[in-house]
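I'll show a sample.
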Amino acid sequence: MTLYAIVPVRGGSKGMPGKNTALLGGVPLWRRAVDQARAAGVDHVVVSTDIAELLRADGEDGVTILARPPDLAGDATPMDPVLTHALDAAVPEGARVVLLQATSPLRAIQDIRDAVALFDSGAFDLVKTVTPTPAGILKYGTMDGDRFVPVSDPAYCFQNRQALPDVMRPNGAVYVFGRDWFLANGGLATDKIGAVVMPPERSFDIDTAEDFARAEAML
């Protein structure tokens, strides 16, 4: 089974205009994700973009620059239709797929390899990377009228923080899934999710210019 990577990069960003083409450690943010994919052993990288300068760039072996339709390049566009377009247009049947968001540049090559290896175990529809987060969220809930509805076990609402189980949050750095499964499923949502734990220092996401400066300092 071939291994493809999809790197979605759009031109618009309210938090930091031009973010995906800005130089981080001397390398454009989008290019860093492409290089990480290639170093991790990906066979082919698909860059889904509406950025004119990328669409005009010379091609290279192992990388496809795919024009993203304007209706899939808005601030509120969810990831599922962006992936559907890229998979239909540029990824062959039967391929395994790694989704690498350019805004998570501090991931390690081994994080990608570990996620692919866990997916290849066959135990999960989807594998994603996660990072530890405060367990106090288990005390939270939603409101149904005047009724408090716990997000998890109601007993957690009354336990000491030290007694709560470890909690992980998705960090957006790596997702691995099968092309055909995704298209048949209609998106990423599933209850068969495997997870690879990444430390907080590699789980940094860039949204604003301040985030970008912090990421540069961390590099």
